[in-house]
Amino acid sequence: MAVYRAELESLFNQLLEGADESERTQLAAVLEGRDDIILPSYVLDEDLNGADEDKPQSIHKFIAGLSLPQKIKLAIRGNKAARSVLLRDSNRQVPALVLENPQITEEEVTELAQNTNTDDELLRLIANNGRWMKNYVIKLAIVANPKVPLDLSIKWVKHLRDADLRRLGRSRNIPQVLSTLCLRTLAMREK
Predict the structure, then answer these.
(1) Three-class SS string for the chain?
(2) Range with the poorest average pLDDT among 23-32, 42-51, 150-159
(3) Is the pTM of the predicted complex or chain greater than 0.90?
(4) Taking a C-beta distance cutoff of 8 angstroms, is the pair 116, 148 a contact?
(5) Burial status of residue 42 (CB atoms within 10 A of its CB: 0-12, 13-18, 19 or more)
(6) I want to staple 82 with a disulfide (CB 3.0 to 4.6 A). Which of 78, 154, 178, 187 is the partner?
């Protein structure tokens, strides 16, 4: 929990650098847990997942109307429906905080890693997270996604299975350097 708190504080400090005085006060309140930001249960409770009578017509419209501190709180505590909307937020720090949400599942991270429209910074955060990279499907998604920075893709090639190396070696969707490395790794294993 201490590591999670340290990472969260680091992200908040990055947000504070570009904020004015009132935003700094609000952001500090969110971090310290003494905020007065109240969010409805349909964006916080995982079992509701957006199904509640008192919700606005669209969760997208609701989230679009939130201030930055409200979006930050929602990113850290929100349910799957809220997380999926916040992952596409224009502020780059909000999606990064969604990845710090303790409720995020490996399936959501896998979908994010497989999506070629995912921001490369989010892909970098996923690839550098040891907890998620224990999952083979996420490793494969990181290597197979052409948008992942090459240094991270190369790092995970040695952990792939032979069949996947063979398939990626023939793939034209990934950089040539990476497909060549997959074929070389496969050849080294077959010796």
Answers:
(1) CHHHHHHHHHHHHHHHHCCCHHHHHHHHHHHHCCCCCCCCHHHCCCCCCCCCCCCCCCHHHHHHCCCHHHHHHHHHHCCHHHHHHHCCCCCCHHHHHHCCCCCCCHHHHHHHHHCCCCCHHHHHHHHCCCCHHHCHHHHHHHHHCCCCCHHHHHHHHCCCCHHHHHHHHHCCCCCHHHHHHHHHHHHHHHC
(2) 42-51
(3) no
(4) no
(5) buried
(6) 78
